[in-house]
Specification:
The protein has 295 residues and is of the alpha+beta class. The protein contains four helices and 18 strands. The protein has three domains: 4-93, Immunoglobulins (Immunoglobulin-like), CATH 2.60.40; 97-140 and 239-264 and 281-287; 144-233, no CATH class. Helix content is 17%, strand content 38%. A hairpin with a 5-residue loop joins strand 5 (30-36) and strand 6.
Length: 295
């Protein structure tokens, strides 16, 4: 199947199969449908148990909730009057659009695709590129409201993941897994100062203790993660350079599917192989958490 769904019990994959004998739709004596989810768990549905719907002679359907991301498989089995087995797959994605640095619509516009025939490949390209950029830069640019824990080697300074805003800060001073010490907004300062002073708004990357508390230091057999932060992590706005890099790389990645063995063409000395676009590296270089020096 070419359909693409999202991980949600309210999102349904409608499976339809027509059983036929010599091209003529025919009702089998028994009908069953085996669904295997991405975890490998198989579930069997039967027409006899009223779990499958008959919509016409030989035509049967079943709605399956897309509750998990990954590749799902199905096998229709008919016996007796119309003995046949039909197998296939469909894909469920767990992404949400705010985690994409290039949208499917943007990529389709760049490559001049107006139909939906290649939607599966389009979405696969933008998802792959978005996650690759995060691994390459060692940071995420989309916003996530979440609770995270951190450790510090400095009682007055705590390095954190890219941070947009803070809801609460608490520390586990007793080192028993409970964050009983609650900080007020006057107990800490977000750094760097003036994150919006440049050409784009940068995230906060550390907290400095300026009040009544200090960050507990871990040693020996102490638990890890003694400071808890509830807040919005990521960047306030995805940098334009990151979005442009994602669009360029997704376009190149999509084109690679038509290059056998990665060969883009043939030159004077033989095949010319496709190579990573240097513009992408240049655009992302300022955003890498640990820049790589090129000699």
């Amino acid at each position: 199947m070419a359909e693409l769904f999202y991980a949600n019990t309210a999102e349904l994959a409608t499976l339809t199969n027509t059983f036929a004998v010599s091209g003529t739709p025919t009702d089998p004596t028994t009908i069953s449908l085996v669904i295997t989810d991405p975890t490998g768990t198989a579930t069997t549905y039967t027409y006899a148990a009223a779990q499958i719907t008959r919509s016409g002679t030989g035509v049967y359907t079943k709605d399956i909730p897309c509750s998990a991301a990954g590749v799902w498989t199905y096998v229709w089995i008919g016996t007796g009057a119309a003995s046949d087995v039909t197998a296939g797959t469909w894909t469920v994605q767990s992404t949400s659009l705010n985690r994409l640095y290039c949208t499917p619509e943007e990529l389709k516009s760049r490559v001049g695709i107006a139909d939906s025939i290649s939607d599966l490949e389009i979405l696969g390209a933008v998802i792959t590129v978005s996650r690759w950029i995060e691994d390459h830069c060692e940071r995420t640019f989309h916003q996530t409201a979440v609770t995270r824990t951190f450790d510090s080697c400095d009682a007055y300074l705590l390095a954190v993941d890219d941070l947009v805003s803070v809801t609460s800060v608490a520390t586990d001073t007793s080192r028993d897994g409970t964050f009983a010490t609650t900080w007020t907004a006057t107990d800490y300062q977000l750094l760097p100062l003036n994150p919006a002073a440049g050409s784009e708004t940068r995230p906060y990357t550390s907290l400095r203790s300026v009040g009544n508390h200090t960050f507990p230091l871990r040693s020996g057999t102490d638990r890890e993660g003694l400071t808890q932060i509830v807040g919005v992590f990521g960047w306030a706005v995805v940098p334009a350079a990151v979005r442009q890099a994602a669009a360029i790389w997704a376009t190149d990645l999509l084109k690679l599917s038509g290059m056998a063995f990665g060969i883009a063409g043939y030159g004077e000395y033989g095949p010319v192989r496709a190579r990573p676009n240097p513009i992408v590296d240049a655009l992302l270089a300022p955003y890498r958490r640990h820049p790589v020096k090129v000699a």
